[in-house]
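dumping this here so i dont lose it again. seq + smiles for zinc ion
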Amino acid sequence: MKYRYVLLVFSLLIPLPLQAALKIFACEPDWAALAQELGGEHVDVTSATQAMQDPHYIQARPSLIARVRKADLLICTGAGLEAGWLPVLLRKGNNPRILDGQAGYLMASEHVMMKEIPVSVDRSMGDVHAEGNPHIQTDPRNIARVAGVLADRLKVLDSANREQYQRRYEDFSLRWNTAINDWQQKGASLKGMPVVVYHRSWVYLQDWLGLKEITSLEPKPGVPPSSRYLAEVLNRTQEYPDLVVIHSQYQESKAIQWFSGKTAAPVVMLPSTVGGTAEAKDLFSWYEDILKRLLNAQRSDND
Ligand SMILES: [Zn+2]
């Protein structure tokens, strides 16, 4: 009897465990950052890829499979960006909560207007994305759209905290839309800026800011350029003296060096996701940094 009493007192002294945070498995750091913005202390977020990795190609490591197995929500770009590794993770993770059709499965590209959906696809086109260009995170208006979908999913998956998710979403949207207006004003002078990209990672950014893509240094997605192809590119860009070369943090290529050496075009490395540069610490500072780098390149071109 006495023993039971002691047990009762003891159990009253132990605080009830806090409700476990929603486990979110993001494929890229940008979606992880968005999930953190909207989920706050109610979510536990990990990203499969780091900013210095090319999200087209990573290994489906056992540590990633373990995280997939425990996840309550999967948020990825989709549209084939992760085609080389995500299906393997999902198969080996064997987690019914995050399969296609469940509230725990969110492919960002299914909720924005896709660009460059090819009419037909065959292997000769290189590592081409059949569902359109997947690099949707480079237009902040796409981030805003995905934020709305993600907030709704958080409310469904963790309904006890739905009011807090709604509040966080409204707060984020207000700040994000204000920032978009600010970036558009700052970036107004970039309109028409001719750019040569390495990989075609920037079509959404280009359309948003009105940059003019002349060509890419990759002849086809995922295919490194031959010297003959580069000579062609050089020819095609001759009429643009104020050309700027753009590449992402994980694309260090001899072709970029060669091309900028031949043309004296400034080379600008843009962070393709949060963490891509030291300055790109969160979603806001990431876009700030993109704008700053483009404007600097433009300025150095006009010198
Ligand atoms: Zn790509």
